[in-house]
Fold these 2 entries.
Entry 1:
Amino acid sequence: MQIIHHIQELRQLVREAKSARGGIKVGFVPTMGYLHQGHASLLEAARKQCDLVVLSIFVNPLQFGPNEDLSRYPRDEERDLAVAKATGTDIVFFPSVEEMYPRPTKTIVSVIEVTERLCGASRPGHFDGVATVVTKLFNIVQPDYAFFGMKDAQQIAVIQQMVDDLNMPVEIVPCKIVREEDGLALSSRNVYLEPEEREQALILSSALNMAEKLVREHKGPLLASELQEAVKQHIDQSSIAEIDYADILAYPSLEPITDLRSVPAFIIALAVKFGKTRLIDNTIIRW
Ligand code: AMP
């Protein structure tokens, strides 16, 4: 496994691999590090599908708002490298902020409409930061396939829209959410949770399970507003859960819906704060 800090070096390595072995498929997994089994599942999927697997670890300042957790975002380089190695990753790209942004960027990639709701509304500028850094990373790595987790379902919708609109020659591969045994979706931010918060955070996955069961067992028309109300009431059972959003939208367009049966697929998307920690989770229901 090679660890690379500079863009030119990375480009050269990928170029050399491609010319040494004609027609190889390059798989790319962009992350912000503090790797867990969710990240590992993306690397494993890339390993299965591609000849060369590139992982990037970069905490992208552009996607954090002024009052967010950029400065305290968890980092553990040594453990990240061990996780990467265990999944058979070929190259770890570990650029510094100066390497990625040697001067303030005057070019921002901004995806409209799909970014209007959910995290786009709660975190202004977040998806501009994501789309811009992912564009830069795609240009640097030039992957054939890029692997993203459905944990960040809106991010996948945004990236897919960007790739389609801008004719980027990369296939986006969505990977399913990896959870702890008790249902909590893995997240680098789970480390912030106090024991009581960790326990109460199970309300997210239990709300999604309850909602899915309700939808599947419900006979006759069911309104998104009714389901949303049931989900909110469920989460309100936790005394410390503070709902940022609990929304039901068409997926992947992320447009509002009235009748759940009017679209082929919809998302139940949650963002809930426990103390200082904001967690997201979701499920997609396809008819
Ligand atoms: P992050 O490091 O949080 O930016 O995440 C990097 C990638 O890992 C994104 O595509 C995430 O959606 C994905 N990811 C994070 N948590 C999980 C999870 N629990 N299951 C699957 N993928 C995940």
Entry 2:
Amino acid sequence: MPPRTTEPRVIVALDFADLGPARELVRRLDPTLCRLKVGKEMYTRYGPHFVEELIKAGYEVFLDLKFHDIPNTVAAACAAAADLGVWMINVHASGGRKMMEAARERLAVASHRPLLIAVTVLTSMGEGDIREVGYAGTPEENVLRLAALAHGAGLDGVVCSPREATALRAAEGADFLLVTPGVRPPTASADDQQRVMTPADAISAGADYLVVGRPVTKSPDPLGVLREISAQVVAASAGG
Ligand code: C5P
């Protein structure tokens, strides 16, 4: 396990439109087996109080708001997230070095310092999409370039596809966190994810943390699925 990775390595994505089912799921999960990811939908509907509720229930929270703005604004937003007590936050690497450095510097003086990671190229974007916004090269080349920029700006890691984990681990070394969505247990549906990897393969490829949503959140037995994934992660970590 890379030096800075801590258990639990599974992050359950809480993608719900309504509070009731989200709370019900959280009650059924176990903070020793997972962290929770709150994204733009739930945060926009239910705000900081919902995040505080999850933290009070014993969960560490990845606030996935992907900030991208002028450096001062992003730094202030990161400080606000730190004050909430979240475990991890993220920004778009394409916001540039100054933006990422401003965020990191502001967090360095915060009372609580969440992990700060970057989004490189959204996995929804293909070669044509990135060319259209003016990037030369393949998506993979841009992922590696933006990850190096994020690392150089002092960020703790990146969100990436498990398919990119091996190359990123080789390029950025053991101490750079790789957080991978697009993970599916061998028996689960891929849903709308185009390219998925099993938890064991993602860990073997170098992922530190796995973001898993629907295989857990849509299951009639979410804790059972979470236990199964955790066991696969532990086995793969021991093997690696
Ligand atoms: O349900 P599922 O496991 O597909 O959920 C994956 C989560 O990770 C969702 O919250 C999705 O927005 C997020 N995500 C992703 N692919 C990325 C970045 C984030 O699936 N490249």
